[in-house]
Amino acid sequence: MGLKEKREINGCLLGSWEINEDLESLKSMVKLDPDEIERINNFRSYARRLEYLSVRVLLKTMIGRNARIIYDHTNKPFIKDNSYQISISHSNKLTSILLSTTNKVGIDLEYMSHRISRISHKFINQEEVISEDPGLKRYHLYIHWCAKEALYKICDKGLLNFKEHMFIKPFEVNDSGNIKGMIKIGKRTQKFDMSYFKTGNYITVLCYK
Fold first, then answer.
1. Last residue of a domain, one of 102, 121, 144
2. Which of 45, 51, 64, 41 shows the shortest CA–CA distance to 17?
3. Do 127 and 142 share a structural domain?
4. Are residues 147 and 199 in the same domain?
5. 118 and 96 part of one domain
6. Does the model's pTM come out above 0.85?
7. What's the pLDDT tens digit per position in 128-180?
């Protein structure tokens, strides 16, 4: 299917790519430099190679040109010419990118495939509210999980703990909506605007600063 979505949202550009191509087809869609080719060849997983290439193809489709993505010591991505702030996420067959020329960004995409309640004690804290409705609880937990992943990505990562340092304010659960996120470390608090939406069995959370 290729490009699944490309739209502006809250001053950012969001794109999604559905991976149905094989490796050679994706390679033919984008120009790679020697370092990128070497990186692909070092991936043992075929699926990981497809993900890596789909990011480059999607980015080119979104901005109309080839652009080099580099990574810092925490594996956080940057565009080499600094033309955009970038955040990247993969899940199942989808790749998503969030871009901005002015704001820091974070994105997380998850295919809701497992019983997330089994690990909720690792990322939900006492200040957060989760629906007791059996029909909403799993989805609500996924939104929280994705929101905290997006917060982690927008920050400089470091030693952030999902349960101790990240907080999602109570919100009404719908197919889409806005939420508020916070990171508290000691006496320092950072606040973030976030939005989420559901597409089929996927949940996406976007974070802006």
1. 102
2. 51
3. yes
4. yes
5. no
6. yes
7. 999 999 889 999 999 999 999 999 999 876 678 999 999 999 999 999 999 99
